[in-house]
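Interim report to the steering committee. The following record documents the input for Septum site-determining protein MinC (211 residues).
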Amino acid sequence: MLKYLKDGILIKIEDYEKNILDLKENIEKNFFDVETDFLLERKNKKYYKDIYNILNEKGHFLYLIKDITPQIIYKKVQIIEKKIHSGQKIEIDGDVILLGDLNIGAELIATGSVFIFGKAKGFIHAGSKGNNKAIVVANEINLNHIKIANIMAKYPKIREVSVPEKISLNNNKIEVERLNENEFKKLLEKSGEKIEEKKSFFRFVFNKKRV
């Protein structure tokens, strides 16, 4: 299992054979950028050599780190500044802001809300531990299914015009509503992130030609 951290991608070993097979498949398909930093906890040191050989063949790096707990791994708001490729699964404790695309076949799971400044095409699960107040907001959404808390639904068919949308639960039913730029910014502010730091990105997002 892979978990995205500030300093790299943590390789969590739960079922060694399965986890190593999944890692090898992802690496061979070049799902990660060149020279990506991977992290391995010291309690899994016995697997270091095998994992190092898999990563080294594709030019990636592996570092041993102290054993860590979820409280240390995650911040209240986690920012991911890259695309999440098909076959990748990222789990976050708290809210997550993705500055990039969630590609088809990728999964993004968060105990809090999910904000995507890009195209949302993969699988999204917000409020994964039962938080029915969690929401999903994305600049452009093209999903098959969406899940919030314990409720999963098929996403409405693709809109003719792509606009930012908010997905939330209302009486245990998933609802979708269109947003304008100011509404989009306000929702991000509620997640605790300083909007001023992302002004240039907002201008890019909302000035794109819609088709």
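The helical segments are 16-28, 48-56, 70-73, 181-190, 199-207. The committee is asked to note this result when reviewing the revised timeline.
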